[in-house]
Amino acid sequence: MELSIGVCDGDVSRVALVGILDLVAVGQIETRLMAATVAHGRHTIVDLSGLTFIASLGMGILVTAYKGLKRKGAKLVLLNPQADVEAALVAARLAAILPIARGEAEALQYLTAD
Fold first, then answer.
1. Where in the chain are the domains?
2. 83: exposed, middle or buried (Cβ count in 10 Å: 0-12, 13-18, 19+)
3. Phi, psi of 76 (to 5 degrees)
4. pTM for the complete prediction?
5. 87-97 in b/e burial notation, b at 16+ Cβ within 10 A?
């Protein structure tokens, strides 16, 4: 599991998850993910285009980040999940909570909308 952290612009953080987000990977990245998202309290794009599998615990840390950011008045949007990952999110009914964008412009539009 690979986690890369960056900034789209001054007000938006960008996190990319690559690989398999299973039980082992959650333990490896959870602290870093929360530090890169919730701790900063900035709107966040989570790029899932390189994520090939997500377990329920992986979904859980995304929801935790979403809730933590919401408490700070910031938003989180998922970017370009692969078909299997998106199907898992939809099956878990998380697509209704965690917005999914097909492109970075769409993600930024969601983050800046009131």
1. 2-112
2. exposed
3. -130, 135
4. 0.94
5. ebbeebebbee
HSE-up of residue 23 (Cα within 13 Å, Cβ side): 0
Find tokens 């285009």 and name the residue.
Answer: 49
pLDDT tens across 78-104, in order?
A: 999 999 999 999 999 999 999 999 999
Predicted confidence (pLDDT) per residue in 44-69, tens digit: 999 999 999 999 999 999 999 999 99
Pull the structure tokens for residue 32: 């870093």
Q: What are phi and psi of 13, to 5 degrees?
A: -90, 155
Domain 2-112 CATH class label:
alpha beta
Q: Give a three-class secondary structure readout of the chain.
A: CEEEEEEEECCEEEEEEEEEECHHHHHHHHHHHHHHCCCCCCEEEEEEEEEEEECHHHHHHHHHHHHHHHHCCCCEEEECCCHHHHHHHHHCCCCCCCCEECCHHHHHHHHHCC
